[in-house]
Amino acid sequence: MKKSRKISSNFINMALALLITCSISAFAVGYVHKITAQPIKKARYQKELAGIASVVNEFNNNPYEEKMIITTPDKKHKLQLFPIRKDGIVNSYAIKTYSKAGFSGRINLIVGFYIDGAIKDFVITEHKETPGLGSKINDAKFKKQFNGFNPRKRIFKVRQDGGEIDAVTGATISSRAVVGAIQRAVDAFNNFYKGTKDE
After folding, report:
1. Which of 71, 72, 125 has its CA nearest to residue 102?
2. What is the pLDDT of residues 86-99, one digit of tens each?
3. What proportions of the chain, in percent to the nearest 5, are helix, strand and coil?
């Protein structure tokens, strides 16, 4: 009988110890999350703003204050558009876009557009492409051919598909994914632009 009470007592003590340990751990995790969430959010914002600044014309507005959601004509994809202004006048746009067709999965990027819809530049913000091969989609040599390219007036595909874009050597899939992501942004931008004209 005494042995049974001792086992029961030990079990209760273990349960209480486990409960206390879990509670302390949960509190610690919650506390750490609370004090790090804001700095992480700020760092992400600054990184994204730097990405936007690298693909558009000079500006002195806060693109985030004018951010809007635009959609592709089929309404299947929602993208973020940032109007870029210098002294109150829009001189370019930045759009966050993506493709899930990369060699190693999703590729996120920010693309900058001139007012006429021509591409100014783009920056890859996240990818898992092969280092030294598919990762070259973010290199200047590949990117420079996009500057001034207007997908409304030219064939916006890689040359292997009958277009005018030279794919990264040995990384056609990654190159196609970039073109596809930018085309998604083009479609959404055209849809947005058409909507403003219809109003």
Report:
1. 125
2. 999 999 999 999 99
3. 50, 25, 25
